[in-house]
Specification:
The protein starts with a helix and ends with a strand. It has a 4-stranded mixed β-sheet with strand order 1-4-3-2. By secondary structure, it is α+β, with helices and mostly antiparallel strands. It has one domain.
Length: 108
């Protein structure tokens, strides 16, 4: 399996389950109602509209969608074990902490 395939597989598993990393919701998301937050989280988990325009590196690490007039962006970043620096190898889950940030477009 290539590194790109492994990264995509790890990203999809994390995004779909929220297991294997940290999920961060920005203030713009947290200020929404409980139902809206639940809807947005479900849209992130089930997102499957990847295209060359929104996924040029084929890693399934970032995308966006419209939600009731807001543009919602989600993005996965790769950090070392201490969350201090970027990971040396995002394909290796033993040295990589994934962080999924979900935000409104105006917060990007």
């Amino acid at each position: 399996m290539t590194d790109t395939n492994k990264i995509r597989q790890l990203n999809d598993a994390f995004r779909q389950t929220f297991i294997g990393g940290d999920v961060m919701l920005t203030l713009g998301i947290r200020m929404k109602s409980e139902k809206e937050v639940a809807d947005i989280l479900e849209r992130v988990r089930t997102f499957n509209e990847f295209t060359p325009a929104n996924d040029p590196y084929l890693e399934h690490d970032c995308a966006s969608f419209d939600y009731h007039g807001d543009r919602i962006i989600w993005k996965i970043d790769y950090y070392d074990q201490n969350h201090e620096f970027l990971s040396d190898n995002p394909a290796d889950p033993t040295i990589t902490n994934r962080v999924l940030t979900i935000m409104t477009a105006c917060e990007y």
